[in-house]
Design brief:
The protein is an alpha+beta fold. The chain contains 7 helices and 14 strands. It binds one DNA strand through loops.
Length: 257
DNA sequence: ATGCCGTGGAAACCACGA
């Protein structure tokens, strides 16, 4: 079973690439972020015609998350991260697919840091950690997949020294991410490729993709039941080189059946 | 060190992303 996450940076602009990638790689579960569309304008029929059931939580202009499931319907569990009724950003949606619980998340960027946006990022990460504590001990597989906007270690950025004060790499961010992982989660891509240079994002400018000046910020966190079934993991990095690409590439894991 | 690019939405620029 392949479970992928892909920040599309507008589901409308990316629809041709998204459909091509779905057809070529046939992932079983797909988490999308940055839909950048109101709820009613999501391209539901194009996704269904491609063979996927889908739930989504849209928002005008910004954010937006979706879960796609090949050949079946996802059962929605929630479409809001608990803990702050005043937070109206569409950044979290959770579903059950067969025996797998999947949380699809788009963590706030947090720049500039310090400042209110950075405070919001850290609060959101704390809320995610509280919610994750409720999920990590389940006997069935749980995967928290998405754009974390967190560079976990120096291995995960082309020039760490340039990112020290950035919200994605600040000490507070990495420590908060480490506290989440320490509940008992496994960073699947890093676990299977402990030494490799692996990126999931390349800026649009300065020829970042051509220079391979990237970041690894899209992650799958697995609870113990999911980790037991972990088989492979990777990044479809060639998708970043397609015409009109997102600045992120699809990232995936394979679980044994 | 930087928004140089890309997207949406409103407005002929600005917010936002990472």
């Amino acid at each position: 079973m392949r479970i992928a996450t892909y920040n599309v940076n507008s589901v409308h602009a990316r629809l041709p690439s998204l459909l091509r990638w779905l057809q070529e790689t046939t992932p079983d579960i797909v988490c999308l972020q940055e839909l950048k569309t109101p709820q009613e304008k999501f391209p539901e029929s194009a996704i269904r015609d491609a063979g996927y059931g889908v739930i989504w939580h849209g928002q005008k202009s910004y954010n937006g998350v979706a879960i796609l499931t090949r050949g079946c319907e996802p059962t929605e569990v929630r479409r809001v991260l608990p803990g702050d009724p005043e937070d109206l950003h569409s950044r979290y949606i959770e579903a059950v697919v067969r025996d797998v619980t999947i949380g699809c998340l788009y963590l706030p960027n947090g720049n500039p840091a310090p400042g209110p946006k950075f405070d919001y990022k850290l609060r959101w990460l704390e809320r995610l950690t509280l919610h994750a504590a409720e999920l990590v001990g389940k006997d069935s597989p749980v995967i928290l997949a998405g754009d974390y906007n967190v560079i976990p270690t120096e291995k995960d950025v082309y020039k760490p020294e340039r990112w020290i004060n950035d919200a994605l790499f600040r000490v507070e961010t990495r420590e908060a991410f480490n506290r989440l992982v320490a509940q008992g989660w496994t960073d699947a891509v890093r676990h299977l490729h402990p030494e490799a240079t692996i990126y999931t994002f390349w800026d649009y400018f300065r020829n970042s993709y051509g220079r391979d000046a990237g970041l690894r910020i899209d992650h799958h966190l697995l609870n113990a039941a999911a980790f037991k079934r972990l088989d492979r993991a990777g990044v479809d990095r060639d998708v970043r080189g397609w015409e009109r690409a997102s600045d992120h590439a699809p990232t995936w894991i394979d679980l044994k059946d």
